[in-house]
Design a protein that fits this description.
heterodimer; A: alpha/beta; Rossmann fold; 2 domains; B: alpha/beta; 6-stranded mixed sheet
Amino acid sequence: MSKKILMTGNEAIGEAAVRAGCDFYAGYPITPQNELTAYMAKRMPEENRVFVQAESELAAISMVMGASASGRRAMTSSSSPGISLKQEGISYLAGAQLPCLIVNIMRGGPGLGNIVPAQSDYFQATRGGGHGDYHCIVLAPCSVQEAHNLVFSGFALSDKYRAPAIILGDGMLGQMMEPLVVHSKKKNLSTKPWALTGCKGRRPNIVKSFYMQEGGLEEFNKALQKKYARIKEKEQRFEGIHLDDSEIILVAYGTQARIARVVVEALRKKGKKAGLLRPVTLWPFPADAFEELLKKKRKKVRFFVTEMSYGQMLEDVRLAVNGRAAVDFYGRAGGGIPTEEEILRRILQ
Amino acid sequence: MREEIICAGFGGQGVMLLGRVIAQAALKENRHVTWIPSYGAAMRGGCAFCTVVISDREIASPYVDKCDTLFVFNQPSWDKFKAKVRKGGLVLFNSSLIKAQQPPRQLRIRKLPFTETAFSLGEVRVANMAALGAFLKEKNILKYKTVLDVFSEITPRHKLHLLEVNKKALEKGYRGW
């Protein structure tokens, strides 16, 4: 086995991006993801790749769009208010079907908020965030190792479907150091025949999100929806713990899933059949996993969602369950982390 | 085994580094470990801290509510964290800078002059390593030798001249006053 090193989540994401072949990064500083921008500032030039500290978030996402259109593996990162600023660009990227990786190390909101861990940007990430009918692929790591791993998946999925991918982490994940085994450098990256690389000797490629002809935009939207249906069908990911015999299933993602896991262990010690369903892809939401559980369960099962928000993923759980089982919730936001004791108390009530 | 540690003091007293050395040593001994810095608005003269969890098992939650060991280097940190130590928990207490009027009972408080010791060694910044030495003595969680190895590994070239005084502080803390 490879050697383990200690790294923060932010650094682990940066190193993963370098190893996944990211050759363009543009960002603008904001806590609690600053270490990621700083890491890229150091590492990208070492690898002879492009790092830009842009003059604003809008500029950074626009640069990413340009780099992506020319076939580069492009990436940007920020934290909640900065991600809000990037939404116009993200909508254009989705509209032009351009791949890129966007990292959001969430902080408390709304508004300027604060820099403590939070999960209040779930809606923004999974519903599109900007204008228009679109989705980004959203991946939610719960450890430094997984944050590292999902950068590779994010770039790969983004390229495969020509859609922006988002890594959605929180301040704790960004700041925390944990042992990490780094992946080796990725070789043989996928080719991008659609990219704007100079059309000498071939037909020109066109990258756009604007359709002049009548009905053109609707046709494009239909094609986009077909793509999203394909992603929903093929790319749902989750982690399940004790799902087979569970009667109470906790649902949580990211850092909060780690606290939920402690609750599951505590419930098991009390003789309760508890399990954990941890969505790894937030979009596509792993609805099929709920479907399967509800089909299989002869006995009653109930779900308990916990988030560092006042109930955002909760809506997707309710949509997936569709009234077939009880869905309870406990969450805090703005710096409050729902603790093991608080969750236990509510479940046992 | 699960050991939850809080290191707290003024910014500049090396509490982040102390936590990182502990984390690095735990990793070297094949333990599971998490390190989280305090992160947020802070004030000069206030309190910087980090939390470290060391465990034989995978660490589900890295979140520390109550700790087993508190390293505390200044008064504001003591005031803030004295209620965060578990019953029977160890406190490595910098008696050079903190006055405890009524220390909570049921804590193993080791009042030791970390800052004065560091001064006497000619480098005030090594108070953290004196405290680490005392920790190694009090709790048989990490090996002395491992910490020395970590010192050698993480000291950047331009700080090599500080390696010796760090070792001296560690030894002083370990051997006692």
